[in-house]
Amino acid sequence: MLKPDYRGGGIVNLMASIAGRFGHRTGYPQLRALPAAALRQHRTVVLVVLDGLGYRYLTTRGAGSFLHRRLEARLTSGFPTTTSSCVATFATGVAAERHGITGWFTHLPELGAVSTILFARPRYGGPAFSDAGVGFKDIMLAGPIFDRLRAESVVITQRSIAYGDFSRANSGNATVRCYSDLGGFIRRIASAVRSARGTAFISAYWPGFDHRCHHHGTGHSAVTRHFRDLDRSIERLSARLSGSGAVMLITADHGLADTPRDRLVDLADHPRMAECLTLPLCGEPRLAYCYVRPDKAGQFTQYVRTRLRHCCDLRTRGQLVRRGFYGTGKADPRFAGRIGDFILVMKPGWCIKDFLPNEQRFFLKANHGGVTADEMYVPLVVVAP
Fold it and tell me: Measuring CA to CA, how many Å separate 365 from each of 53, 226, 260, 368?
């Protein structure tokens, strides 16, 4: 099982270097490949997060591209290797054990609810938590890094998500600028760099690559075309930023692994396992959190180790926490309730899903959240125009 490098080789350490450039310590070591001192010559630091662009994709299917030619290092993602948790790391500068966002479906014991965390609402649907008087700042266990930096901060994100509870809580006091398409994304970055009055940190997020991989698979022509468009757009942006004093640090939250439909485990086909659970599956299809009835723990573990041993490895919460998968520091006391009693770590290509009575059944051709090299390793591209 691959696990994140929190001691100098992961995205949390990249954030420590950026924070150090602007006078803040996150509590994690700075990135070995790019310490804060190397960033001090630049007036503006632009962090570009290309959702889903894994290191292995860039160095194989993306070989020879502009981004590949500027590749500086291979980093590890966070854990789990998923957008909700890793975007929270980019926004707070800390790992999951401290920010508490542990997957697409995160159990929030304080609310008695399984949440679709990026939408800040119960998994079964309905209004956002804020409409019920629950602020997302009470759900996040760590505050936004933008409020701690000695720099003008700008967040650039897609219009459709910019003002949701999750995004607003994680943007803090940063100026938020929105876009609707790839051209707008590039223009917003260029404009933010040009308009910066002093030292500035600009954090820009692009979800289009991840979206296409999910729906088509990583090798599909639609993904290839989008990568080429993205690569050309960033190359043109580099030219536009020439002489600006800015440096672009381009990375990703995670990579993706193709998941064939014949490797999908449907919990409905395993009633003896389902009857052991107190909650729906949480986490991710490639890393599922199981909350188990105490009197059914033996039945649950025996079932998984016999009937599902071909498709997953069974781990306890304590095993993964002690081995430092979620971070290496002191975890927030509320964190433990957000990762289940047992964790199903799915083997390459495999997913496990359940569906609530009101949920539409769907299948994604590529997923993330697991511990394969495709999912865990992300690139660090450095562009100093």
Answer: 16, 17, 6, 11
How far is Cα 208 from Cα 34, in angstroms, rounded to an integer? 27
Which amino acid makes up residue 89? T
Distance CA 81, CA 275 (A): 28
**Residue range 216-236, pLDDT digits in tens:** 999 999 999 999 999 999 999
CATH number of 11-258+371-383: 3.30.710.10, 3.30.450.20, 3.40.720.10, 3.40.50.300?
3.40.720.10
Residue-wise pLDDT tens digits, 117-145:
999 999 999 999 999 999 998 899 999 99
Distance of CA 190 to CAs 108, 129, 186, 187, 381, Å?
39, 35, 6, 5, 18
Q: What tokens were used for 106?
A: 């995160």
Q: What is the CA radius of gyration of the chain?
A: 20
Token pair belonging to 202: 């600009």
